[in-house]
Amino acid sequence: MRYQISGKQIDIGEALQTHVKSELGEVIEKYAQRPTEATIVFSRVAHEHVCESTIHLSTGLTAQATGRATEIYAAFESCREKMDKQLRRYKRRLRDHHRERTAPVEFGPGSSYILAASEEAEDGEVENLQPMVIAEMETKVPSITVGEAVMQLELAGQSMLVFRNEGHGGVNVVYRRDDGNIGWIDPRNSK
């Protein structure tokens, strides 16, 4: 497994990197058999240290956790505990998907755009109906089942996930509703 441990405007010593690799490695090996990459970023916000970790699994799932504390090691421990809880909660589901999926998840190309907020005139009408593109980026769209998409949404703590439905190849969306439930948009079924 490949680890990428870094700090935002703080120095990360060799002892902390070794501690992170050993502790996080134990958690990952216990619950996820084929992790591919772990990214851990330490930063400082006011008086608190923040540890953000993202783990990519060969099944295409991504697990994320964040920990905060006044000490950097305590921030990592908080993050590690959240990751442990998250992976333990989904261990059965991860194992089931691991058994069903023999090959890694395929990712297709996609474009991602950031649009500027529209400016309103004094009378409340929008002056220009064409949005201004601020940034244009390349993104990856996974080809997974609906169940895997919901699990990915929950593991990553995201509010929305766009994916290619492995069943029919169409683009689908799963999202977290305001009432806490998960919504699924499948344009193919809207006939």
Outline of the structure:
The chain has helices spanning 14-31, 72-89, 91-100, 146-156, and strands spanning 2-7, 35-45, 48-57, 62-69, 106-115, 133-144, 160-165, 171-176, 182-185. It has 191 residues and is α+β, with helices and mostly antiparallel strands. The radius of gyration is 20 Å and the shape is globular.
How would you sum up this structure, described in words?
The chain has 4 helices and 9 strands; from the N terminus they run βαβββααββαβββ. It has 191 residues and is α+β, with helices and mostly antiparallel strands. The strands form 2 sheets. The protein has a 5-stranded mixed sheet, covered by helices on one side. Strand 1 (2-7), helix 1 (14-31) and strand 2 form a beta-alpha-beta unit. The protein is globular, with a radius of gyration of 20 Å. It is found in: Cytoplasm. Interacts with 100S ribosomes.
